[in-house]
Write a structure and sequence with these properties.
This protein is mainly alpha-helical. Helices cover 80% and strands 0% of the residues.
Length: 223
């Protein structure tokens, strides 16, 4: 009986993992070219029963994690070693393989949707708690995944010794940052009903909070 339960669990797990091969590119395409639409759909998804949510897309936190897994795969394919894995100083000893390095990347980049979601909740004059933060955080994960993928791949390609590849990589990283700021500005303006200028300012503060967290974690794990 236990063996049959294990087989059924394996069947469900295999189907779920293989479905990512189809739905991850679909979700990525929509997050890149229709970000506001896919973020808007999160509200309607939340009203559905749990087993019916995200039937046609990858769920937001998982999408962010898979995007970072893809970027980590690219850097590994380019023969690059994670600086934190290579370091043995301080907290870097906690990250000694690709799996733990990937978990750290997910935590670091998840800070951007977290800080932006918290700012959105505060600006909407809603009490900030775990309940009010969850939905905005999920909404932010889609553009944040595109941002994380673009920046990570851009940095990896930018480290190449060939001038053309280096230029392309740095350009991709900069464009990813600007695109993230632009998408979030549109979202803040739409959600809060404020001007684009004010929305851009709010997003800038949220991005700076995320960047500060990134640099602090990077410093602690490489020094």
């Amino acid at each position: 009986m236990d063996f049959m339960k294990w087989l059924n669990s394996l069947d469900e797990l295999l189907y779920e993992v293989m479905s990512w091969l189809l739905f991850f590119p679909i979700t990525l395409w929509r997050a890149m070219f229709r970000p506001i639409d896919i973020m808007t759909e999160i509200d309607s998804e939340a009203a559905l029963p749990e087993d019916e949510q995200y039937a046609s897309v990858v769920s937001p936190p998982l999408f962010l994690a898979l995007a970072l897994l893809l970027s980590h795969t690219v850097s590994t394919a380019l023969g690059q070693t994670d600086a934190i894995i290579a370091s043995h100083h301080g907290l870097a000893d906690l990250v000694n393989d690709n799996a733990s390095a990937l978990v750290l990347r997910v935590v670091v980049f998840a800070a951007f949707p977290l800080f932006l979601a918290a700012r959105l909740v505060r600006r909407s004059k809603t009490k900030l708690d775990r309940g009010s933060l969850r939905q905005p955080f999920y909404e932010q994960c889609y553009p944040a995944a595109v941002f994380a993928l673009g920046v990570s791949v851009g940095v990896s390609v930018g480290l190449d010794h060939h001038q053309t590849a280096s230029t392309v990589g740095h350009t991709l990283a900069v464009l990813s940052i600007l695109n993230f700021w632009f998408v979030e500005t549109r979202w803040f303006a739409k959600t809060l009903g404020v001007s684009y200028l004010r929305a851009a300012g709010d997003v800038f503060i949220g991005l700076m909070e995320g960047a500060l967290f990134l640099f602090c974690v990077g410093y602690l794990f490489t020094r």
